[in-house]
Amino acid sequence: MARWMAEQKLGRSTATQPEYREDEVELPDLALVRPEEEKTTIGIDQIRGLIASTGLTSYEGSGKAAIIEPANAMTREAANSLLKTLEEPPGDMLIILVADRTGAMPATIFSRCQQVGVAVPPEEVALDWLHHLSSSADWRVALDFAGGAPLVALELLESLDVLKEMASDFHGVAKRSSAPTAVAAKWSKLDTPMVLNWLSSEVLKCTKARSGCEKWAGVLALDNSVLQRMDTRKLICYLDIINRLRASPKGSFNVQLMLERLLIDWADGLKHVSWHDNFDGLSQIQATG
Fold this sequence. Notes:
Elements (H helix, E strand, L loop, with lengths): L1 H8 L20 E4 L10 H11 L9 E5 L7 H12 L5 E5 L9 H4 L12 H11 L5 H7 L4 H7 L3 H15 L5 H8 L4 H19 L3 H4 L6 H4 L4 H15 L8 H13 L7 H13 L2
Parallel strand pairs: 1-2, 2-3
Helix pairs in contact: 2-3, 6-7, 9-14, 10-13, 13-15
């Protein structure tokens, strides 16, 4: 959608709605700002480079556009350096910030933007769209792991076997039939962003189900009897810790230690989780990285 909005601005698209394309053609007046290879954050030098480019003349004469994605991956220094440009965009410039966790963005950035919410489509609509791409794929399972987001389901399709095994491990830890340390050692060999993204999605579904929103929760990797023993507020706290770990720079924490702490809390039914303790716990995890 962000790409479509930018192309509309630059007069390069006549489509009346966004279209999915696997390959995107580079446009001279469109700047794409994403985390650099092997990094999870967008740094201040990248934003400074973007700001410098905004002062250049439009190559095709239709203005300029920039997409920052994910905007919640900007470091605090990068976000602060963008403030003045957001207040007074130079010339005929459109800046689009794409974020899946707006709560992770500084309020000063959030308040300077026009907000456009993009809701997850109804399940049958998403499945119909996905089946048009491939009729043989197990899209229902992929969509459930993706929290109902069809584009995420596309990314997860090749990892379904791994995700199914993770779901089984997570259930086993909750029922105390699997050792948290053993599962942490196993998961530490996987792609860390994938693990944290899946954990965030799964705990969010548990939170929805525990709050009485079962129809929005999807299929859980957890027995309802186990879930009912967990406090909703502690689930929210636990989810917050996972999301802040997702936003942390690569290498800022010890992956296996972090997973051990998260899974030990999960095995204990989050009994010892609290806002104060978790803020301290996250600092300790990062300090040992």
